[in-house]
Amino acid sequence: MLKISQKLEYAIRAMIELAARRDGAQPVPARELASAQQIPLRFLEQQLGALGRAGLVESSRGAGGGYRLARDPQDITVAQVADAIEGQLAPMFCLEESDHTCFADSRCGLQGFWGDVANAIAKVLEETTVADLVARQRRAAPVFSAADLTSRLS
Predict the structure, then answer these.
(1) Would you say the pTM of this structure is higher than 0.70?
(2) pLDDT at position 2 over 90
(3) DSSP structural state of residue 64
(4) Is 85 exposed, middle or buried (CB count within 10 Å of its CB: 0-12, 13-18, 19+)?
(5) 62 Cβ partners below 8 Å, 6+ apart?
(6) C-beta atoms surrounding 15 within 10 Å
(7) What 3-state class would DSSP assign to 125?
């Protein structure tokens, strides 16, 4: 089965956490995001950098600094997050435009099949927003982050 990288998994989890905390005016420190989602801080910082370069998150430095979503979670698709972290996803090397190493390049029935698989995956990623994932998470586990747990106990 196809596997999603841990980098992308962590980036999506960070985006869900930021979206869930969007009501707060303060940016969320990377350390707090890492703790809430059980992501190694150094690894998370790399993903946040890529998300920032893609215009999906904004960062602020100094006391009270941290990260926040750059746009409404309804306007950020999982495809945009995946592109920021992984670049274009292709399930097979032969679907990459720059790769012509296959002996049957563009003369293979499997290439069309893998193209169909790639298109199906792309459709799901493009149709799913970060807001959709937050809603799914809340249905599956109503208390899903340290921030949520803290606010419910207060």
Answers:
(1) yes
(2) no
(3) T
(4) buried
(5) none
(6) 28
(7) helix
CB atoms within 10 A of CB 133: 20
Angle subtended at Cα 70 by Cα 68 and Cα 75, rounded to the nearest 5 degrees: 120
Tell me the H-state helices in 29-103. Answer: 30-37, 41-53, 78-86
The Cα–Cα gap between 81 and 63 comes to: 27
Residue 154's pLDDT band (cuts 50, 70, 90): very low
**What is the chain's length?**
154
CA dist 20 → 72, 130, 140 (Å): 11, 10, 14
Residue of 109, 134, 115 whose CA lies nearest to 20: 134
What is the DSSP secondary-structure string of 89-124? Answer: --SSGGGSTT---STTTT--HHHHHHHHHHHHHHHH
